[in-house]
Amino acid sequence: MVADKGKRSKVEEEAPYHIDGELVLSIEKLQEIQDEIEKVNEEASDKVLEIEQKYNEIRRPIYRRRNEIIQSIPDFWLTAFLSHPVISDLVTEEDQKILKYLVSLDVEDFKDVKSGYSITFNIANGISHEKEGGKRPLVEESFFSWFNETQPKNLAEGFSDEVAEMLKEDLWPNPLKYFNNEIDEEDFDGEEEDEQKGTEHDDEDESGDEDGEGDDN
């Protein structure tokens, strides 16, 4: 009787040595277990999203109350922006004139958390700037340029996403920390040092490869 090659497992086809049927069966059972784990992980992810959505709704009225109080503090958002180690470098003098009249900053996750979030700036003259997380407008000389999606694509892709993430993850959760200038700059310096070390390591690897090629010759 000739075995059906179409029914052979991947392990049987790729292995350079003979594998007995018992081992193949064990591997197939292991794959079934892995599939079961993946199913549980997917269910867990869905549950986590449900919890995030629930607490996003609970936080909304608290954030509104916070915005009401912030409006009574002169130059609150301007001070907070200028105290952020990274964002402050993006704020020009013209931007400061706008941020001085920033009434409220609002970050809101979409109901389907996986689809992203929006960031809204409400200026005192009634102008509202809104940005949805995940899109990639490009920035030039002004902080607010990253809201403009019609600019030419002449800057590093993903830069606007980094700005949005800093607003959402750093500034928005506790702006009072930045207003009071209570930030730990070592955290930001550590991230920059890690990036620099990674770059230096890559350069060393490339240099080592070139030297190795020279030795062979």
UniProtKB/TrEMBL annotation:
GO molecular function: histone binding
InterPro entries from the UniProt entry: NAP-like_sf, NAP_family
Ranges of biased composition (kind: Acidic residues): 182-217
Protein's GO biological process: double-strand break repair via homologous recombination; nucleosome assembly
Keywords recorded for this protein, A-Z: Chaperone, Coiled coil
Name listed for the protein in its UniProt record: Uncharacterized protein
Region feature (Disordered): 179-217
Family statement: Belongs to the nucleosome assembly protein (NAP) family.
GO cellular component: nucleus
Coiled-coil residues: 23-54
SUPFAM superfamilies on file: NAP-like
PANTHER family given in the database record: TESTIS-SPECIFIC Y-ENCODED PROTEIN (PTHR11875)
Organism per entry: Zingiber officinale (Ginger)
